Structures are given as C-alpha cells and as structure tokens.
Amino acid sequence: MKKISIDEFRLSLSLPKPPPNLSLHEKALWFAGKGDWEKAHHIVQDLNDSFSSRIHAFLHRQEGDLSNANYWYSKAGIVLPDLTIDQEWEVLVISC
User: Fold this and answer.
1) First to last CA, the chain
2) What is the domain range of residue 65?
3) Is the CA virtual torsion 54, 76, 24, 44 positive or negative?
4) DSSP string, 14-50
5) What's the whole-number mean pLDDT along residues 56-68?
C-alpha cells in the first residue's frame, strides 16, 4: 500500500470521512486534524504499542491535560517535545 504524503493527508481532511486505506494511527491523526478529539482518542485509547501511546500523549496535550499527556509520553519512552501542537501533529503524521 502506498503511503500518502503529508500534503495528500492534509487535503483528505476536507473529506467527510477518512480515506479507507488509513491505518488506525493515521485515522486517529486524521480525526485529530479534523478537530474531532473524541474519535481520535477512542481509536488510540485501547492500543498498546508505543506509537499509540505517543499519539495518546499528543491528544491529551492538545486538550490541555499536560499531566495526562506526560504520563503517555512516558509510556512512549519520550518527553514532551519542544514543538507546537501543529508541528507535533505533522511529525506524527509523517512518522506513520
């Protein structure tokens, strides 16, 4: 399966639904990019891999819950990045 570029990913945010070929990580980030925190969080909250923990951390940071975000960053093995929310979102999308 061909990975979509960050530009294609951004363009897909104008669609009413995520593209069907997205991974769960990409779907969570797609909903986060659309501003649908609840759907994004619902996707990653029960996943147990470190990248899901990183997305989970990002989502709690996005909502302003830094204590919870730091917990999830710790589970992902990283510290809160020195990036804006938008920059972190982009890094996560590119890393999928």
Assistant:
1) 13
2) 6-13+22-95
3) negative
4) TSSS--TT--HHHHHHHHHHHT-HHHHHHHHTT--SH
5) 96
